Amino acid sequence: MTDPALYLITPPKIADLPAFAEEVVRVFGTSAGTAADVACLQLRLKDVGDDEVLRAAETLLPLCAQAGVGLLINDRADLAKKAGADGVHIGQSDGSVAEARRLLGEDRDIGVTCHDSIHLAMEAGEAGADYVAFGAFFPTTTKAVEHHADPEILSRWSEMATVPCVAIGGITAETARSLIEAGADYVAVSGAIWNHPDGAEAGARAFQAALGA
Ligand SMILES: Cc1ncc(COP(=O)(O)OP(=O)(O)O)c(N)n1
Ligand SMILES: Cc1ncsc1CCOP(=O)(O)O
Ligand SMILES: [Mg+2]
């Protein structure tokens, strides 16, 4: 089996948690054992309280464990620790890798947003990040982005570093392969899965086909 390449990011709001959990299970099932197998799921809820994040994590963790998919929490290493999640994704304003590592220990994953900067990625790698994330590569409606990256940064990074890199930002089934070919180890995707006109399963299947499963 090819290494899994798909990094799923939840929508910023989950209105119906039980329904979303069922959708997640169907998405995991769609691509299990293929090149588009899901490597991890990032819980990225915005403008909600800690309790809501913890409740969502409590629901999603067993589903992820069952599917062999790591659950990462966005922004907050303290909540990742409380939830017993597999790791955290931090942006440049979400605290340091050192602090996240102190809270989570060596066996949890820490990913760091590096925008379009090799310099930030080198800093993150030296601080002990498990992966670095570059983007946004394409226009997206999921987040108002200030930084735009060119696929060339993925090639440069993969030639000079061993820390895996994630590509993010407006990625679709049509554009995913080009980013993997440029050097991305994973493509992080939200809208193209959850907002797919034919449903999330269809979105996942499209990535499965595109990533050569
Ligand atoms: C895999 C991945 N890459 C980048 C981001 C963006 O993180 P950040 O810059 O902290 O912005 P928010 O997601 O917190 O709005 C990410 N979440 N995941
Ligand atoms: C969180 C984030 N950071 C940069 S772009 C982005 C949004 C990713 O979502 P989508 O795949 O819908 O563009
Ligand atoms: Mg953040």
From TrEMBL:
- Alphabetical UniProt keywords: Magnesium, Metal-binding, Thiamine biosynthesis, Transferase
Q: Is Metal-binding one of the keywords UniProt gives this record?
A: yes
EC assignment: the record states 2.5.1.3
Note on cofactor? Binds 1 Mg(2+) ion per subunit.
Q: Domain (Thiamine phosphate synthase/TenI): give its ranges.
A: 6-193
Answer whether the UniProt record assigns the keyword Magnesium to this protein: yes
Enzyme class name: transferase
The task this protein performs is described as:
Condenses 4-methyl-5-(beta-hydroxyethyl)thiazole monophosphate (THZ-P) and 2-methyl-4-amino-5-hydroxymethyl pyrimidine pyrophosphate (HMP-PP) to form thiamine monophosphate (TMP).
UniProt: Mg(2+) binding residues: D75, D94
Q: Where does 2-[(2R,5Z)-2-carboxy-4-methylthiazol-5(2H)-ylidene]ethyl phosphate bind?
A: T140, T141, T142, G170
Q: Report the catalytic activity.
A: 4-methyl-5-(2-phosphooxyethyl)-thiazole + 4-amino-2-methyl-5-(diphosphooxymethyl)pyrimidine + H(+) = thiamine phosphate + diphosphate; 2-[(2R,5Z)-2-carboxy-4-methylthiazol-5(2H)-ylidene]ethyl phosphate + 4-amino-2-methyl-5-(diphosphooxymethyl)pyrimidine + 2 H(+) = thiamine phosphate + CO2 + diphosphate; 2-(2-carboxy-4-methylthiazol-5-yl)ethyl phosphate + 4-amino-2-methyl-5-(diphosphooxymethyl)pyrimidine + 2 H(+) = thiamine phosphate + CO2 + diphosphate
Q: What metabolic or biological pathway is this protein involved in?
A: Cofactor biosynthesis; thiamine diphosphate biosynthesis; thiamine phosphate from 4-amino-2-methyl-5-diphosphomethylpyrimidine and 4-methyl-5-(2-phosphoethyl)-thiazole: step 1/1
The protein's gene is named thiE
Q: Return the protein name.
A: Thiamine-phosphate synthase
Q: Which PANTHER family does the UniProt record give?
A: THIAMINE-PHOSPHATE PYROPHOSPHORYLASE, THIAMINE-PHOSPHATE SYNTHASE
Q: Which organism is it from?
A: Parvularcula lutaonensis
Q: Which InterPro entries match?
A: Aldolase_TIM, ThiamineP_synth_sf, ThiamineP_synth_TenI, TMP_synthase
